[in-house]
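Posting this for the archive.
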Amino acid sequence: MSMPSQQLGDQAKPPVRPRRSVAAMKEERAAFLFLTPWFAGLLLFLVIPLGYAVYISMTDRRLISGARTHFIGLDNYVYMFTKDGLFYHSLYITAKWLVLTTPLFLAAGLVISLFLNQKYFGMNVFRTILYIPAVVSGVAVAVLWLQLLNPEQGAVNYLLIKLGVDNPPFWLADPTWAMPAVILMQLWTVGGYAIIYLAGLQNIPPHLYEAASIDGARAWEKFRYITLPMLSPTIFFLALNAVIDALLFFGPLFVLTVGRGVGGLGGPENSLLFYMVYLYDVAFGGQGFMGYGTALAMILVIIGVVLVFILMKLERRFVFYESEQ
C-alpha cells in the first residue's frame, strides 16, 4: 500500500503530452505554407498602412504643399479635443443620425419583410421591385431625391400642396428639415434590410408556429416568442452593419450638399456636417490638412471599435442561436 506522500507525488506529476507524428507535423507546415499569402496580405494591406496612418496623424502633412512634413506628436489630437468645435459638432450630428436611423431602418425592414413573407399573387415581382433601390448607386439615389425634394418644383412638395399643406418644408435648404430629408431618402432603400429579414423568416421551422397554434397562441404571441427570438441573429447582423454604415455615411451627403446651393459641404448651418463629411473637408477639401484629417480618421476607427465591442457584448444577452439549445 502506497503512502499518502507518494500518492501526492504521483498526482503532482504533469501529464505526458503525446508526441506528434511526422505526418501531423508535415500537415501543420503545409497549413502555414498555404496561409502565408493571407498573412502577407494582412501585413501589406492592413498592418503597414494602419501603422503609417498613425504616423501621419502625428505630423503636419498637407495635401498639396511644398513644405516639409514635421513630426508634431500629439498636437493634432490635443487641438481636436480642446479647440475644434466642429469636431464635436460632427460627432453630435453623426450620433444623432445613428440613434434616429438605426432603430427606424431595422423596424421598417422587419415590418416590410413580414409582409413580403406572405403568399400573395405577384409577391415575387413586388420583392424584386422593392429591392431595386437597395442596389442602385447611392449617387443616383441622391440625385433623384435632390429633384424630388426641390422646394419649388419637387414632386414631394407638389403632393403636400395638393394635400392642403400651405407652407411645405424647404427640406435640404432648411437646417430644421435637412436631417429628416436625408432620413426620408435613406428610408427608401430599406428594401435591402427587408430581403435579409425575409431570408431569416423563411429559415424559421414551420412546426414551431404549428405547435404554438395548437397551444392557442395568438399572432402577437407567435411574433413575440417565436419570430423575434429566431430572428435575433439576423437583427444583430443588420444592427452591426447599420452602426458601421452610420459612421461611414458620406456619398449621398456629398451629392446633396456640394455645389447644390443648400449651404455647401455640411448643409445649411452645418446641419448635415457628419463626421465623414468633416473629415473629407479637412483632409481633401478646401483645407487639405492630411495630418489632422488622418487624426480624425484614427478617432473614428476607435469609436467604431468601441461600438462594435459593445454590440458583441450585448450579443450574448439578447441573441438566440438555435444550435446552442
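The mean pLDDT is 86. The domain at 86-324 is CATH 1.10.3720.10 (MetI-like fold).
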